[in-house]
Amino acid sequence: MDFTKIIVVSGKSGVFKVVAQSRSGFITESLIDGKKMPVSASNRITSVEDIVVFTETDEVKLKEVLKKMKEVTNGEPGVDHKSPDKDIIAFFSSVLPDYDKEKVYVSDMKKMIFWYNLLQKNNMLDFEEDEKPEDEQTPDVQTEAKETPKDSD
Questions:
Q1: With CB atoms counted within 10 Å of each terminal CB, which end of the chain scores lower, N or C?
Q2: Which residues touch 72 (CB under 8 Å, ≥6 apart)?
Q3: Alpha carbon 45 to chain centroid distance?
Q4: Contact between residue 76 and residue 117 where contact means Cβ atoms under 8 Å apart
Q5: Are strands 36-40 and 16-21 parallel, antiparallel or unpaired?
């Protein structure tokens, strides 16, 4: 899954898939309700690929946290983001036990769980391509197969 095409927009709930680029920004599709809307380049837009979560020792990409959530839930939805704080913390701790407890707030955990559940619902958590060695990954540009000339008898 190419998480550079999945964005969050400051002031908007949920995550969005970029479907096209316009003169002034992007045309996005909400993963909540499927509605398309323009997002201006003046909005604060962040790609899911660029978001990191603080741990006690380092930073972990959100993509890795989502991958771990998928493993912990066996590909099923996670805990509801509207669950009590103790349930949110317990779930998040099972996913990322060494998260920085001073920098990662329950509100952050709720957002990440909400985003995970949206991506899971929309079947957008395919990490298999990331696990293939580079030489086995599908190239971005497809090449046409050349026909071999047939021998004339």
A1: C
A2: 78, 91, 94, 95
A3: 14
A4: no
A5: unpaired
Maximal CA-CA distance, the chain: 79
Question: How are strands ordered across the β-sheet holding 36-40?
Answer: 36-40, 25-30, 16-21, 6-9, 45-47
Look up residue 97 and give its DSSP letter.
T
Entry pTM: 0.79
CA–CA dist 25, 139 (Å, integer): 27
Tokens at residue 71, please? 């493993």
Answer yes or no: is pLDDT of 136 > 90: no
Mean pLDDT, the chain, as a whole number? 85
Range 91-117 average pLDDT: 95
Backbone angles phi, psi at 40, to 5 degrees: -75, 150
Structural domains of the chain, ranges and CATH numbers in brackets: 3-47 (2.30.30), 51-127 (1.10.10.1650)
